[in-house]
Amino acid sequence: MTTATPVLLQLLPLPFPEAQQRLAQRFDLIELWKEQDPDAVIAARQNEIVAVVTSAMTPTSAKLIDKLPNLRAICSHGVGYDAIDVKHAQKKGIQVSNTPDVLNDCVADLALGLLLATARRLGQAERYVRSNLWSTDAKFPLGVKVSHKKIGIVGLGRIGMAIAQRAKGFDMEIRYHNRRQRTDVGLTYEPSLVELAAWADFLVIATVGGPDTRHLVNDDVIKALGRDGILINISRGTVVDETAMVNALVSGELGGAGLDVYESEPTVPDALKTLDNVVIVPHIASATSETRKAMADLVAANAEAFAKTGNVITPIPPL
Ligand code: 8YV
């Protein structure tokens, strides 16, 4: 790298001051969220910018990338990259890093948390006690057992494997569906997603988002999971045909759902808010202080490594 202080375009603040400070110490920062006229600032400094900091939920388009002729690295806060045009960046020789592994535990914990909350009606039970219903009729409905039940994992990657590890703790029978069978895991592979759903008591979505998996969980899969089945989604809302899911929940053709992600966040279909067999939370799978700090630190480390060596530490593999 040249001796001049490299210029970094930061689309959003890192949620931890230490990590933000590390960027400020190493780069000439353009903190775009502070700018009155962001487009004018980008136009004025477009030739100087060599790196961008963004996040899994911040659109980082080919249009923005093409405005920056000397861009060499994009460092993203988050493991998912469906909001970033990674293919376009990589085609232009631009590295894109994400924050894998540091969030596996918390995302998998929330997947099991949603599964338990939905199966045991924790959200409904909470509302029941808070609205003083317990003292009046004491007829709270039964939940369904989790231990020793069948769990189907859609997308057996790092997070999927962490979910499988936790499911073993509940003595659950585990099968998975992926684009390809994995040869390095001793779990049962199901080539047909519909067959996996038909077999499973709980279907957990842990696959990547983006056009390749859009509506992978369609009406056929949802109907196969069925009246006693429970759908859990901690990946991306677009992976599930949300309209089909809502219709099946309302009609009773799907037993229940525990959701952290939605097709048009932060919009959540109103119908879901009225259903007792649904647990809905606001995209918080990685939202713990420990994990978000680790994610912010990894973004700073990727940017620092790029400034020092020209290479990020956790690049997204070529797509
Ligand atoms: C987000 C996530 O990163 O990592 C992901 O892909 O969806 C989350 O951890 C977070 O919500 C904001 O950046």
Automatic annotation (TrEMBL):
Record Pfam families: 2-Hacid_dh, 2-Hacid_dh_C
Organism listed in the record: Pollutimonas nitritireducens
Keyword field contains NADP: yes
Coiled coil location: none
Cited InterPro entries: D-isomer_2-hydroxyacid_DH, D-isomer_2_OHA_DH_cat_dom, D-isomer_DH_CS1, D-isomer_DH_NAD-bd, NAD(P)-bd_dom_sf
Domain D-isomer specific 2-hydroxyacid dehydrogenase catalytic, chain residue ranges per copy: 17-314
PROSITE patterns in UniProt: D_2_HYDROXYACID_DH_1
SUPFAM superfamilies, A to Z: Formate/glycerate dehydrogenase catalytic domain-like, NAD(P)-binding Rossmann-fold domains
Domain D-isomer specific 2-hydroxyacid dehydrogenase NAD-binding per the UniProt entry, residue ranges: 112-285
Protein name according to UniProt: Hydroxyacid dehydrogenase
Keywords: NAD, NADP, Oxidoreductase
UniProt keyword annotation of Protein biosynthesis present: no
GO cellular component, as recorded: cytosol
Family of this protein: Belongs to the D-isomer specific 2-hydroxyacid dehydrogenase family.
A GO molecular-function annotation: hydroxypyruvate reductase [NAD(P)H] activity
Lineage, highest ranks first: Bacteria, Pseudomonadati, Pseudomonadota, Betaproteobacteria, Burkholderiales
